[in-house]
Known about the structure:
Layout: H1 15-22, H2 26-29, E1 43-46, H3 52-61, E2 66-70, H4 73-85, E3 91-95, E4 108-114, H5 123-133, E5 134-145, E6 151-153, H6 157-172, H7 179-189, E7 193-203, H8 207-220, H9 224-234, E8 240-251
Parallel strand pairs: 1-2, 1-4, 2-3, 4-5
Antiparallel strand pairs: 5-8, 6-8, 7-8
Helix pairs in contact: 1-8, 6-8, 6-9, 8-9
Amino acid sequence: xxxxxxxxxxxxxxxxxxxxxxxxxLESHGFFLAPLLQPGFDVLDAGCGPGTxxxxxxxxxxxxxxxxxxxxxxxxxxxxxxxxxxxIVNASFIHGSAYGIPFQDSSFDLVFSHALLEQLLEPQRVLxxxxxxxxxxxxxxVCSPDWDRFEMAPCPGAVTEAxxxxxxxxxxxxxxxxxxxxxxxxxxxxxxxxxSTGVWTERCNSPHRIAGFIASQLEEAGSHGHAGTLRTxxxxxxxxxxxxxxxxxxxxxxxx
Length: 256
């Protein structure tokens, strides 16, 4: 994603963040969505990034269609190339904002979003858009990190302080590092009814990647000491980062 007045400082063009997003697929980061997917479904992937999960969804719902929506032209181009390389014919990728989804009411059987809501100034406004474009009886599934439950090793005080500095930066920019824990309430407020919720922990395969992403944002904000702490931490042979994610699966009930 790219920064606009409606978004926080997002990681759209950071190489470490892009590499992390490109490594995600339906099995690893959308497993809670898989039981809902049916052939013939029309699906929206809001904030699709480089399209790895989007293209996996397309294979599951064929001959239904999947639309990936993102505000980063670079991500959309990567997603299109991936789709062409995999010869997927039922996925399309469009430029646009989740604050004003360019589709009519009740356009999709399922709306999915991974790692988007925590980046937004007004996540509940976006969820109301999700509700609008979801068909009655259709589903919405969202997922965000919960930074209250992350784990790092080794984790001396300086590393903890550096992560706290990053969280303050993220939240001061309008995002929410507690988004994962708030998803259920946000979805209910938007009009969705819960089906299931869950938590899982992702072990980062590249400490250098996550440290580089966080450090680069701290450096841009002038927090060079905290950034250096994280880069030093990543060089430790036993460095380990565990990220906690939360998901919520919901349904849009028909009007009585």
